[in-house]
Amino acid sequence: MPIKGLTDRGLAFPEIGQIRKGAKKTESKPGADLTYFRVEFGDGPADQESARVFLATYGPQPREIRIILPFDEIDRMWDAWLEGYVAGRMVARADGDKYQYLVSSDGSLVVKNGVDVKTNMERPYIDGQPCYWYTNTRGERVPVYCKPSGRLKVIIPELARAAYLTVLTTSIHDIGNISQQLEAFRQLNNGRIAGIPLVLRRRPKAISTPNPNDPTVRVRRVKWLLSIEADPEWVKLALSHAKKLALPGNGLPLLHEPDPEGESEFDQDDFEYDYNQDQTTPAEYEPESQAPASEEPESQAEPEPKVDDDLTEAQEMTSTDGKRYGDLDSKTLYLMRSSIQGALERGSIKVNGAMRELTDEERNLRDKKLWAINTILISRGEKIS
Amino acid sequence: MDVSGRGHYTARKDNMSEQQESRDQVYDQVYAPGIIRRYVCAGCYGQLISKPIKGTRDEIVFCPQCGEHRGLVTRRFAEGRKDVSASELNEVTQVLQKAGVLPAPVKKTASQLLAELGF
């Protein structure tokens, strides 16, 4: 039998604590929402030492925590599902479209790995429909509904341990936010997010919530939502690195630059050819050709194009399979452009065989992708209809 | 038959919320052994045990280490997590060494290794 704190569930990469948004729940109701994080550690000696280090670094009521994500693949560290629980165990899990896991009231397994065990088909999830029923102490049948549940594995660098804490949230706003932010980091960093220094913050935001006195009415309330942001120093370094890579010659000087402090070893008259203009030379100057009469003179180097920050940003965007837009050929870009334009015009996308309306975030992302593709095509001299 | 056995469970406070009630790990005595066989504690992945509730046909299923309300996960899930955990540790260790959180491994020379081995 495992010993608490010493075996850590028998995991080599263990969970040593949890980061929560609300106060501890009471006997009769859930805990109140807080404006800071409530962090709990395990009971073992190593976990308690980590708790001490955390407290010394962040204090008892931290609003921001420096984190590192453990993996590049988002679904290995971020779980967001609609889940139903009864008697301490999960009885239903859905992705909003279909059930991934479902247990019936008699205890038998109905859906496993997204497929009905009897019919071998998907079982659709319908919002507002109970996923389970149980009988309460008064003999009444009580429905159980699935609720959103988000779990993010994070490593706190100050603890200097190969162990994670789980950030827990049941807010659909947090779940949407975190999903978008992780995907954005992954796209901006060419599919890599593990090891990037990030900051997990609680930020106040006014959101629509049901009025407890009248559920048919919604009111706007300020809630302290989760936000994952990149460390500013890392952002500065990453942007300057991307800019350097985008420059011809990786930012190294390709032409000799005149010495501003002393006399140049070259005479000014030697620089009569203006590379920013066309190739024709002025009539009063004819350069002396050094090449033998039988050989063609070397062609002049084409003027280097001015580096455009927008073009750099567009080229650095990556597709869902991690390829840089700048590396894709024009034909592929045209196909992608057509697909994105279609989705934006319809206002919907096909997910698991069914059409679903685009959310605002999805629309914005597609707009940005369309802008990037158009920018690259224009820079290549391609036609944009 | 309702496997959770709630219809027979009367030894709780009447004013307990349904939210609280649904968290209690209470099962009909017929189904409790099956739950213990198929599930482990969500907190420590340890073996569950049960105790009967006096005056009813129900039993509370709980973990002797973590208590009554820690939750249950399937044994299969727990074993799956243990299987991948070792490879996760390797991967995460490299990430943390690259990020400067963990110290890089110290490369030892051949003579140092031999000395450690007693040669």
Helices, strands, pairings?
The complex is a heterodimer of chains A (385) and B (119).
Chain A: E1 15-22, E2 33-41, H1 45-58, E3 64-67, E4 78-86, E5 89-94, E6 99-103, E7 109-112, E8 115-116, E9 132-135, E10 141-144, E11 147-154, E12 164-169, H2 172-188, E13 198-210, E14 218-230, H3 232-246, H4 309-316, H5 330-346, E15 348-351, E16 354-357, H6 360-379
Parallel strand pairs in A: 1-12
Antiparallel strand pairs in A: 1-2, 3-13, 4-5, 4-11, 5-6, 6-7, 7-8, 9-10, 11-12, 13-14, 15-16
Helix pairs in contact in A: 4-6, 5-6
Chain B: H1 18-23, E1 26-28, H2 32-38, E2 39-41, E3 49-52, E4 58-62, E5 72-74, H3 75-98, H4 110-117
Description of the molecule:
Chain A is an alpha+beta fold and 385 residues long. Helix content of chain A is 24%, strand content 27%. Chain A has 6 helices and 16 strands. Chain A has helices spanning 45-58, 172-188, 232-246, 309-316, 330-346, 360-379; strands at residues 15-22, 33-41, 64-67, 78-86, 89-94, 99-103, 109-112, 115-116, 132-135, 141-144, 147-154, 164-169, 198-210, 218-230, 348-351, 354-357. In chain A, the strands form 4 sheets. Chain A has a 9-stranded mixed β-sheet. Chain A has a 3-stranded antiparallel β-sheet with strand order 3-13-14. In chain A, strands 9-10 form a two-stranded antiparallel ribbon. Chain A is globular. By secondary structure, chain B is an alpha+beta fold. In chain B, 38% of the residues lie in helices and 15% in strands. In chain B, the strands form 2 sheets. Chain B has a 3-stranded antiparallel β-sheet with strand order 1-4-3, covered by helices on one side. In chain B, strands 2-5 form a two-stranded antiparallel ribbon. In chain B, a hairpin with a 5-residue loop joins strand 3 and strand 4. Chain B is elongated, with a radius of gyration of 24 Å. The termini of chain B are far apart. Mean pLDDT of chain B is 80; it is low at 1-17. The chains are: A alpha+beta (385), B alpha+beta (119). The interface between A and B is large, with 41 and 58 residues.
